[in-house]
From TrEMBL:
This is Hopanoid C-3 methylase HpnR. It comes from Komagataeibacter oboediens. Keywords: Iron, Iron-sulfur, Metal-binding, Methyltransferase, S-adenosyl-L-methionine, Transferase. Its cofactor is [4Fe-4S] cluster. One of its GO terms (cellular component) is cytosol. One of its GO terms (biological process) is methylation. The gene is hpnR. SUPFAM superfamilies: Cobalamin (vitamin B12)-binding domain, Radical SAM enzymes. It comes from the Bacteria. Residues 467-514 are annotated as: Disordered. Signal peptide: none annotated.
Length: 514
């Protein structure tokens, strides 16, 4: 079969600060190609809708799959599926991905029959089975993870080994368009999959059933050696949970003499526990480290179920700085924040040397705060669920909330990319431009055209075309965590962690339920 794999357009945040290659879609494409199918990828982050139609006309796919990792992309995906169905009545259309896995039946209902099915869970594990079933006229509901309007197939399954499928990077036509900050261009790579923690605002653990699996250092080394981009973004939800694994990859990189620059995300407590791992990685090219603090007070940390003390967080920041790493942190702006709270946050952020990103508390399907907060939503418009719009009641009038939010973001943006930092900023941008890379340079001047209270208010004023269904009455009781999972939890055996690390994880998460 001929399969066209499609990544939807950029969202608000990714229009400015980063544009990552669609690694998950490349893995699905690689898995399909391993089964003998002819595959092409189009990424609408760097191409346009007319390019999509041109590709369909030229390639004439038998099947088209869409990556549904982000709720805000749902309207675009549904519209494209409906128009594709109109033009190609017999094509096999399906969607997979992280967010879509939690709302499969809702999306199918909104598509008015345009979408054949949703493939929940790990797409690289089951895309081959799905294409085979369609090609041979079998019942799709025999395939693990499949959801149709007629019912659900068997539960999703994991790929047997993360070494089994390699991403089809060669299928992307515009690889130099991908970047994150000054890593321009940058490729993405996966060292481990899943997360053993259980933060209330996150759906990584509910998607993977609190599992944690790793790829072998040898395969990672081979993949890094093949990647042409000088910058590498490590996509793991929490990098180097398992110290031995991190060291083994570092040894493999040294043995192969791989010269790259790395950006990764981790937790403060993991950094402090595995200091030697991060020190070694600094030696082999780690430049940026992103730490999700989420809150700057104990009450906020408790709400997000992060059992890390503020002192421990600040110790982690100090240690990262001592390694001469560029540190970025994330804070979550709560809708309850008033002007005074925003001002406190601004002053705190200006007093530290680190890059600070501000997102907005957003209940996502698959998270515990979705179950506890979704009845409070002020909008059900899928477009606004992008962690940059307020979808719950704000203490300040909504316009004032956005004014304070954007003011805070602007001050923090200027701190690193404004006139005070213009010498270093332009120096980096010019060096990149001389190599033909202008993604970072464009980013510097793009902020005000994207982050703008007037635009955010206009988004709210626009009539929603596709909305989330209302949560039924009488469902505000305590969350049954078992109902949140896409891949069901399999307990200790699903986590490739030594006993000491497993104990550490349990001691640093708030819940005791698996």
């Amino acid at each position: 079969m001929r399969l066209l794999a499609v990544h939807p357009s950029s969202l608000m945040y990714t229009k400015v600060f980063l544009r990552l290659e669609p690694l998950g879609l490349e893995l699905v494409a690689g898995a399909a190609r391993n089964k003998g199918h002819e595959v092409e990828i189009i990424d609408l982050q760097v191409e346009k809708h007319p390019d999509y139609w041109e590709r369909i006309e030229r390639f004439r796919p038998h099947a088209i799959c869409f990556s549904g990792n982000y709720l805000a992309n749902v309207p675009e995906i549904i519209d494209l599926c409906k128009e594709t169905r109109r033009r190609l009545p017999n094509v096999f259309l399906f969607i997979g991905g992280h967010s879509i896995s939690f709302i499969a039946r809702d999306v199918l209902a909104l598509s008015d029959g345009a979408i054949n099915c949703v493939l929940k869970g790990e797409g690289d594990a089951t895309v081959g089975l799905l294409l085979e079933a369609w090609e041979q006229g079998k019942d799709l509901l025999t395939v693990p993870g499949v959801v149709t309007m007629e019912g659900d197939g068997p539960p999703p399954i994991f790929i047997e080994s993360l070494d089994e499928v390699r991403p089809a990077r060669d299928l992307l036509r515009h690889r130099r368009k991908y970047f994150i900050g000054t890593l321009d261009p940058a490729a993405s790579i996966e060292f481990a999959r899943g997360c053993p923690w259980d933060c209330t605002f996150c759906s990584a653990w509910t998607f993977y059933g609190r599992s944690y699996r790793t790829a072998s250092a040898k395969v990672i080394g081979e993949e890094l050696q093949e990647i042409k981009e000088p910058g590498i973004f490590i996509v793991d939800d929490v990098a180097f949970v398992h110290a031995e694994h991190g060291m083994a990859i570092a040894d493999e990189i040294k043995r192969r003499n791989i010269q790259k620059e790395y950006y990764l995300e981790t937790r403060a407590d993991v950094l402090m526990r595995n200091k030697e791992v991060f020190a070694v990685w600094k030696e082999i090219g780690l430049s940026y480290i992103f730490i999700g603090l989420e809150a700057v007070d104990a009450e906020g940390l408790k709400r997000f179920r992060k059992r890390v003390s503020m002192d421990r967080n600040f110790e982690a920041l100090e240690y990262a700085r001592s390694l001469d790493l560029i540190v970025a942190i994330n804070l979550i702006a709560d809708p309850s924040w008033d002007r005074e709270r925003f001002e406190v946050i601004r002053q705190w952020c200006l007093e530290i040397p680190d890059i600070v990103n501000i997102s907005v508390t957003t209940p996502y399907p698959g998270t515990e705060i979705w179950e506890s907060e979704s009845r409070k939503l002020t909008t059900r418009d899928y477009r606004l669920f992008d962690i940059q719009h307020a979808v719950m009641p704000t203490t300040l009038p909504l316009r004032e909330f956005y004014e304070e939010l954007v003011k805070t973001q602007q001050i923090l943006n200027n701190k690193h990319l404004g006139w005070s930092a213009i010498k270093d900023t332009l120096g980096i941008a010019l060096r990149l431009a001389l190599r033909g890379q202008t993604n970072f340079l464009t980013m510097i001047w793009k902020f005000n055209s994207v982050f703008n209270p007037e635009l955010q208010m206009a988004d709210h004023a626009q009539k929603p075309e596709y909305e989330m269904p209302l949560k039924p009455e009488g469902t505000d009781q305590k969350v049954d965590r078992k109902t949140l999972y896409v891949h069901g939890p399999a307990g200790r055996k699903s986590r490739k962690l030594d006993d000491a690390t497993e104990k550490f994880v349990d001691e640093t998460r708030m819940s005791t339920v698996d």
